Structures are given as structure tokens and as C-alpha cells.
Amino acid sequence: MYRPLFAVIDLAHLSHNIRYLKSRLRPDASLMVAVKADAYGHGVRAVVSRLAREGVRDVAVASLEEALEIRAFHRDVNILVLGAVTPDACAKAAEAEVEIALTDLSPIDEIPRMPKRLRVHLPLDTGMNRLGVKRTDEAVALARAIAAREDLELVGAGTHLAAADADDPAHASGQMERLKVFARALEEAGVRPARIHAGNSAALLRNPAWHLDMVRVGIAAYGYSPDPSVLPAPSLRPVMSLYAGVLRVARAQPGETVGYGATFAVQRPMSIATVAGGYADGYPRHLSNQGDVLVGGDLRPVIGRVCMDQLMVDVTGLDVATGDFAALFGYEPPALWREGWWNRLHPEERAARVQETYRMASNREERRVLSLDRLAALAQTIPYEILCRVHRRVPRVVCDG
């Protein structure tokens, strides 16, 4: 670790969130956690290993490549590929004991005969208009075709709720009613799979009747409600915090400007901190002149355009110096991360010292949180996107606070 920029992944918070979500889960339903896109940017190896410790046996990914990455380090977890898998890849999925959603990209008659049985889920389109069959007769026919092959096993059927976090639950309720029609048709035909699933994070938080046999949660596992204004979940704790060092603190006078395009004009004497994080690291450029960071014990505005590798912050009146740290989102930096602390450490020992001091702060300090809900709203996006966009050049320091 050379550049003063890193993300802390707090596995204790992940454990807390999973336990909280399980407490909200209907007793006869199981929990699946989405770990696609490198576990929403958190690091799939650390996340899956912690999920297994918490008794989560089912995870979901977007592609077979993601599934095989997990299978290379974890043999016991059940993995479901939610995205399309081509016929020529089905044998690889079966060999790795990975479950797939059987989409239009893999017609039954194009899937080659396989020496090992492939476990499949039937995607049902109840109103998302993304993937899956739309009519009950299609679903029954596909389920029967699966049952007719000894190398395929139908283990699940599911849909995806498009608006479970909306102010009005009518759309989601309509999808659930259509799903019941599908389930009834499959049952009457004698081909109903063991698990029917539809629920996402919003469904888990909103309505136990939507939990069915399994709930597939995503963003809630990582500490955020899909819409806190509709489904407040203050018990959830952010798992990722993004920290960046202060590279310079300088005075600016009226008449000067800040950043590319001179979009911020200095109106009064100011202290401006340059911070080591930019849009190439995942901090949205859309937050130019409107974002905030936690620095020097206070929430301070981003001024000027966010650069590729840095951003500038108004720290007027604060005790902030070169070598201090700011939180671009997440928990306030520990008090120890000041006065050149980073530069006094050897690069090879920095990760261990971050872990140690972060854990100490978690146990001893009352820390403020800069929630991604706030930043995402300002950036006209969602926490999911910002988490996933934290670039791989940003080291992830895994902590267990």
C-alpha cells in the first residue's frame, strides 16, 4: 500500500447485517445473498467466506465466470447463476456443481447431453420483462422437458420483483399474484420444483408473504436499504468505507478558482484540502461542487470538479493537515489516522496497522457515518452503482471490527 487510498471491508458489519436480515426472514424461508460484481465491489472471497460462517449456504452471481471463481476457493456453498448461460457452457456448470437459470439463450434441445446432472431454475417473467417465460403453458412445457432429461434437474423457479421498494406496493403485489398462477400450474402438472423464489432486499424488509421458499438479498447485506425513504432499516450497517489521504492544504483568496474548468470561484479566504481519490477510484464526477466528505470531524463540501485521481474540499476553519484522512463515504476515519500517521508506516505494514487501528476505533469511538444514500441521491444514482464502481486499483483492507 503506497498511495493513501483504500477501502475498509468490515466483516463484523456484514455478519451483523446477515443476522438482522435472518431475524426479519420468515422461519420457513432460506436466505440467498447476491455476490455478483465481486460482491458489489467488496471482494467476493472475503464476503463468501464470511457468509458461510454465518450459515448462508446459497449465493447468486451474474455469470458462470463469477461462479467458477467462487468454486475455486469454496466447494460447499450453493451457487446460482442468474444471468444467461450458453448451451456449450452447461457441462462446465454441471461439472462445477453450479446451478443456472435456464434462459432463452439455452434451449433444451441445444444443451448437449452431460455426464453430470445440471441443476436448473426456471425463470418466470411476471412483469420485469427482462428474462424468463411469460405464459404458464410455456413454463409447464419447459419444466416437463427438463424432467424428461436424466442430466437435468429442476430445483427452483423464480421471478424478480421490479418495484418492491416503490411507494405503492401494487406492482409487486401484482407480480406475486402472477407468480402464484405459475406455481399452481406447475403443481397441477406435477412438475413444481422444491423452491419458489421472488423476494429481494425490499421484499424481505417489506412483506413476509413475499418471502416464499427463499429470498435473494443484495444491497441489504452490504448495509443499505433499497429505498430508505420507503423501507427504513437503521439497523443495517455499511460494510464498506472508502478512505483517502489529504495530499495538500492550501489557502485560496477571493478571485481564485478551483479545479478543471474553473467551475468554483473563491468568494472568501478559504483553506482547500486536496484529497487522494477521484472518479477513476469510483467517486462520481457528478458530485463535483455538490458532494461531501467526512474530514477533521466535520462534513465538508467538495469544491470544483472531481478529478480522475483527486478531489478538493473546503476545510476552512478545521484543524486539517497534510497526511490526515477523509472518509469519502462510510465511517469517520479513526482519530489515530492524523498528523502524518500514514507516512510513518512502512508500506508493507500499512494494511495490518489499518486493520488494528480501525478495530480499535470500532470498539472505542463514536463515529459519524457518511451514508451512500446521501451521496447517491446527489449523484442521481443508487448505492449499488457507487459500490460496484470502486475500482480494483483501490486496495480492500478486510477488517473484523
Automatic annotation (TrEMBL):
Cofactor(s) this protein cannot do without: pyridoxal 5'-phosphate
Signal sequence residues: none
Xref: SUPFAM superfamilies: Alanine racemase C-terminal domain-like, PLP-binding barrel
Alphabetically ordered keywords of this record: Isomerase, Pyridoxal phosphate
Residues that bind substrate: R130, M308
The keyword Isomerase is annotated on this UniProt entry: yes
Positions of modified residues (N6-(pyridoxal phosphate)lysine): K36
Residue ranges occupied by any Alanine racemase C-terminal domain in the UniProt entry: 239-399
MF-aspect GO terms: alanine racemase activity
Presence of the UniProt keyword Transmembrane helix in the record: no
Record-listed E.C. numbers: 5.1.1.1
InterPro entries: Ala_racemase, Ala_racemase/Decarboxylase_C, Ala_racemase_C, Ala_racemase_N, Ala_racemase_pyridoxalP-BS, PLP-binding_barrel
Reactions accelerated catalytically: L-alanine = D-alanine
PROSITE patterns (alphabetical): ALANINE_RACEMASE
Pfam families: Ala_racemase_C, Ala_racemase_N
Associated pathway: Amino-acid biosynthesis; D-alanine biosynthesis; D-alanine from L-alanine: step 1/1
Record: active site: K36, Y260
Superkingdom of origin: Bacteria
Similarity comment: family membership: Belongs to the alanine racemase family.
Job of this protein: Catalyzes the interconversion of L-alanine and D-alanine. May also act on other amino acids.
Protein name according to UniProt: Alanine racemase
Source species: Alicyclobacillus mali
